[in-house]
Design a protein that fits this description.
By secondary structure, this protein is mainly alpha-helical. It has 13 helices and 9 strands. The strands form 4 sheets. The chain has a 3-stranded antiparallel β-sheet. Helix 1 crosses helix 10. It is a peripheral membrane protein.
């Protein structure tokens, strides 16, 4: 609830999921281990239903392995209990005591740690057929299971609601409506951050930004160095904002919310500093009318929506 003041839905959702990921210690679990545990527990029939006992046995293997590597951080019984509850809340809200094998896998893979594109590859592999191709139905199942994660946090509206059909359509349209897509075509589409999945790449940006320290001072709350995301104005020289001021919509005198900003989740390079300086210079000579017409110039990477209206400007 204390994250509800973040104005941008993709960020609000991603920050909530990041908090959940850390509470469940899934930020310590790498993708290859997750995949190994699925094999070890013979979870190959994705459309099968498995009961609570089997889920507990799978989670116990996962957390026992994590406890060996991170003794002080993992309490096995507590983690198993919390993760089981989370999985049931997401995939068995009616508490039938059973969830689909595929749902279990997609839930755990989505919150494991690893490189973003590698995660896309793992997710694709879980739903693809023996030919390593994926049809509309299989992609639909993947997106349906993935969207349950923000839905359980009350955040589904911004991602097209529970209706994943427009996302499936946009992916196949991009690939000339062929009956099946390859993993490469899926990754290329995911790079565009489609509406129903935008929270996942943003989650990775949130995780990357957590330890970033920027040699800059927030013009609003004066935090220095800025830790986390740094937002730099492309309208004013030396105008930087920290993530908490930016997300809650605070501004300093003379800087409007609709002015273009650029986001950094890791410290800037000198090349980026020069590039931004040039942009500010150009923007200095642009009128108010220009910004009213082009409010999203160089703005948050959240309006990469391939279907439906923009989430927010």
């Amino acid at each position: 609830a204390d994250l509800n003041n973040v104005r941008f839905s993709a960020y609000r959702t991603a920050i909530k999921i990041r908090r959940l990921q850390k509470a469940l210690c899934l930020d310590l679990l790498d993708l290859s281990t997750t995949s190994e545990v699925f094999k070890q527990h013979k979870l190959s029939q994705n459309d099968q239903l498995i009961g609570v006992q089997d889920v507990i046995s799978c989670l116990t293997t996962i957390y026992s392995g994590l406890e060996e590597k991170h003794k002080d951080m993992v309490n096995v019984p507590l983690c198993v209990d919390m993760c089981l509850n989370w999985l049931l809340n997401v995939y068995d809200s009616g508490r039938t005591g059973k969830i689909r094998v595929q749902s279990l896998k997609i839930g755990l893979i989505s919150l494991s740690k690893g490189l973003l594109e590698e995660k896309y590859r793992y997710l694709f592999k879980e739903v693809a057929g023996p030919t390593e191709m994926c049809d509309q139905r299989q992609l639909g199942l993947l997106l349906h299971d993935a969207i349950q994660i923000p839905r359980q946090l009350g955040e589904v509206a911004a991602f097209g609601g529970s209706n994943i059909e427009p996302s499936v359509r946009s992916c196949f349209q991009q690939n000339h409506n062929k009956p099946e897509i390859t993993v490469k075509q899926f990754i290329d589409w995911m790079r565009l951050e489609p509406q129903s999945m935008v929270w996942l790449p943003v989650l990775h940006r949130v995780a990357a930004s957590e330890t970033a320290k920027h040699q800059a001072k927030c013009n609003i709350c004066k935090e220095c160095p800025i830790v986390g995301f740094r937002y730099r104005s492309l309208k004013h020289f030396n105008y930087d904002v920290c993530q908490s001021c930016f997300f809650s919509g605070r501004t300093a005198k003379g800087h409007k919310l609709h002015y273009p900003m650029v986001e950094y989740c890791i410290p800037t390079t000198s090349g980026e500093d020069v590039r931004d300086f040039t942009k500010v210079l150009k923007n200095k000579f642009r009128s108010k009318k220009y910004f009213a017409k082009h409010p999203r110039l160089g703005y948050l990477p959240v309006q990469t929506v391939l279907e439906g209206d923009n989430l927010e400007t």
